[in-house]
Design a protein that fits this description.
Blueprint (H helix, E strand, L loop, with lengths): L1 H16 L20 E5 L4 H11 L4 E6 L18 E5 L5 H8 L4 E4 L12 H19 L3 E5 L11 H16 L4 E5 L2 E2 L6 H11 L1 E5 L5 E2 L2 E2 H12 L8 E4 L5 E2 H11 L7 E6 L15 H15 L18 H4 L22 H9 L22
Parallel strand pairs: 1-2, 1-4, 2-3, 4-5, 5-6, 6-11, 7-10, 8-13
Antiparallel strand pairs: 9-12
């Protein structure tokens, strides 16, 4: 097919460009082929990472999947490639030598690490800046030819969200050691394993309400995780894309409140669940310079304090929407591209609509699941 010929051509070009590291034989085809590429995917057990591993493994790439902790956490990834092509390796983000070992034989390194939860070992700085810095430095010192760093569409050092600020700082840390790195900036991602639409549905299912801070009128263009992984695969097999910054967003723009309402309709919770505004947004009524005193800002601060004090591993505190311990990330941030950087059009891709994919996995939250009586949704749940 045309797609296979394009992939095969990309494989041959890549092997010719980086022959000193690439496998000597290039055999195009499917899962049992040999692409000639060895890639390290850090963050491979996360939501995006597993999709990237699958995209590379299915065309015969050898993929190193570093893991921290138990090897069983990466066991499921072995099925994404032929025998011996998915290689788990232990590492620690603060053990520089272990990072070098995972990247030194690779043609390309893809950093998908971007933890959205505070833990005992890593805060937002540690996971998104320090780790990115160590990986970029290790790649530079090991002589890795290419590096892809996954950041965030809203990355901004002046953002009220600490997590978003750290993503921007992470980009600078990467470029300081690896100036030719490719930066991929996805919007809020949705997919079967997401902590976005699934979390909204869980609030409705368990608590009967979905808590909101302020008007939730910030704009979001949700992007399908598989589309982001496909764009990363395209960069891997097309060295011409190296060094670029790509803003990846979905085809439709919604407010956060519209998305929360749409999930309520898709899970058939009308009349059973409600959207609850925890603290109103009174910004428009406050004098200039006093916007930070709006009740919704204070509500987010209280929420962040609570979630940062409560260990993520302990039950009892249901996760808030967005980054745990940083409500500003979702409730007070615009997730829309500025237009300054190229997007999916650079890969000749048309991003997938949220409405075309999400209902398939949100149906599990309907009372009765797939066996429930299906009511007509004509004219219901439409996002305008």
């Amino acid at each position: 097919t045309r797609h296979r010929k394009m992939v095969a051509g990309g494989m041959r070009r890549l092997a010719a460009t980086h022959g000193r590291r690439a496998m000597s034989t290039v055999i195009p085809g499917g899962r049992s082929s040999v692409s000639g590429v060895t890639a390290t995917v850090l963050g491979s057990t996360g939501m995006l990472g597993r999709y990237v591993v699958n995209k590379l493994g299915r065309v015969g790439s050898q993929v190193v999947v570093p893991y921290r902790g138990n090897e069983e956490d990466s066991r499921h990834l072995k099925l994404m490639g032929d025998l011996g092509m998915i290689v788990p390796m232990p590492f620690h983000a603060r053990d520089f030598d272990s990072i070098v070992k995972t990247v030194e034989r690779s043609d390309i390194v893809i950093n998908c690490i971007g933890k959205q939860e505070l833990t005992m070992n890593f805060n937002f700085f540690g996971a998104n800046v320090e780790t990115a810095h160590n990986i970029a430095r290790a790649c530079a010192e090991a002589g890795v030819p290419r590096l892809i760093h996954v950041s965030a569409l809203a990355a901004d050092e002046g953002s009220p969200s600490e997590w978003v600020r750290r993503k921007a700082e992470g980009e600078q840390a990467v470029l300081s050691h690896f100036p030719g790195a490719t930066i991929v900036r996805p919007s809020v991602m949705f997919g079967e394993e997401d902590k976005f639409l699934n979390l909204i549905a869980k609030w409705y299912q368990i608590m009967g309400v979905c808590p909101m801070y302020g008007a939730a009128n910030n704009k979001i263009r949700p992007v399908y995780v598989d589309d982001v992984a496909e764009a990363i695969r395209a960069v891997v097999f097309d060295p011409v894309k190296d060094g670029g910054v790509y803003d990846l967003e979905g085809p439709e723009e919604y407010t956060l409140r519209q998305i929360v309402e749409w999930v309520r309709v898709q899970t058939q919770r009308e009349g059973l669940a409600s959207i609850r505004t925890i603290a109103p947004d009174l910004t428009m009524f406050l004098p200039e310079g006093m916007e930070s005193y709006s009740p919704h800002r204070g509500g987010m601060d209280v929420s962040d304090f609570f979630y940062r004090m409560w260990p993520a591993a302990l039950p009892g505190a249901p996760a808030n929407l967005g980054v745990r311990g940083d409500a500003n990330m979702l409730f007070n941030t615009e997730w829309v591209a500025s237009g300054a950087n190229p997007g999916f059009e650079s890969f000749f891709m048309k991003p997938t609509s949220m409405k075309g994919v999400a209902p398939e996995y949100l149906r599990h939250y309907i009372k009765g699941g797939q066996f429930a009586t299906q009511e007509s949704h004509d004219g219901r749940g439409t996002l305008t």
